[in-house]
Amino acid sequence: LFVGTITLLLLCLATFAGGFTPVVSVWKRAFKSSLSSSSTTSESFPGEEQLGLGILVNEEERLKKSSFKIPPNELVELAKDVMRKDFGLLDESILADDFQFVAPIIGPYGKDFYFNALKSVNFTGSFSNIEDGTIFNIFVDPIEHNRVWYFVRPVATHTGTFRGAKPTGKQLVFPPQANSILFNEEGKVTRLNLGYVADRLEGNTGGLALVFGFAYGVGKPLPFPEARGQRSLKLRILNFLSGLADKRMKAKKAKEAKKAQKAKEAK
C-alpha cells in the first residue's frame, strides 16, 4: 500500500510539475496501439472516419455483417420484454442457466443469488413512482452484436420505511446510467449489467445507483466507502493533486492572455 501510494504521488507530482501533456501523449500512443491490434476495430467499413483516438463507426453497415442469429431489431424487442418482465422477477424463464448479474462494484452473481437479493429488498413497498423513471436510446452494440445498450434516468419517492429510515416524501433523482443486456442465440439473457453511472454529479443520491443510491438517498448508506460516495485515499490524493495541476494551468493561461493583452495595448 505504501509503495503504491508513493508511486501514485510521484506520478501526480510529475503531472503537476509538467502539466498533463506527457501523460496524455503516452496514453494516446498506448490507445492507438491497442486499436491497431484489436480485431473488433481493425476492419474498415464504408462511411467510417477517424475521430481523434477512435473510429466513428458505421453502425448500420457493421450490424448488416452480424453473424449473430437474432437480428438487431428483434434483439431490441427482446430487451424491452426483459424490462417489461422486471428483469426476470416476473418470468424467470427469460434468463439463461449461465446468467450473470454484474454491477460496478458487485458481482458477477448467478441466477439464484440474483433473485434472492432482489426479493430481499422491498423497493416497491418503500418507494413510489419508480415507474416514472425514463428509459431511452435502446440499441444493439455495433461491435458486440448480442449486446443491447440502453440509458436510464431513475426517480423514486421515499414513501415507506427503508433500512430503518422512516418515510420522508423525499424524491430521489438518480444519475443517468448506461446499462446493457447480453443474449445467447436462444434469446435468453446471459448477462445483465446495471447501475453504470454516466455522470455522478447528477441527481441527489451521491452519484450512486441501484440499492446504493436508494440507501444513500434516504440517509442510510451501506457500511463501506464505495456505497457512501467516498473515494480511496489514493484516489483522493490523485484528485487533489490533479485539481492543483488544473488550477496551475488555468493560472498560466490567464497570465499569458493578460500579457498578450498588454502587448496589444502597447502597440
Question: What's this, in brief?
Answer:
With 267 residues, the chain is of the alpha+beta class. It contains eight helices and ten strands.
Largest sheet: 5 strands, mixed
The percentage helix is: 40-55%
Number of strands: 10
Low-confidence stretches: 1-16, 19-24, 30-40
| pLDDT averaged over residues | 83
Overview of the molecule:
With 267 residues, this protein is an alpha+beta fold. It is 41% helix and 18% strand. The protein has helices spanning 2-18, 21-37, 59-64, 72-84, 111-120, 123-126, 210-217, 233-266; strands at residues 49-51, 54-56, 95-102, 127-128, 134-140, 147-153, 155-158, 171-173, 177-183, 189-193. The strands form three sheets. A five-stranded mixed sheet has the order 3-10-9-6-5, covered by helices on one side. The chain has a three-stranded antiparallel sheet with strand order 4-7-8. Strand 9 and strand 10 form a beta hairpin. It is flat, with a radius of gyration of 23 Å. Mean pLDDT is 83; it is low at 1-16, 19-24 and 30-40.
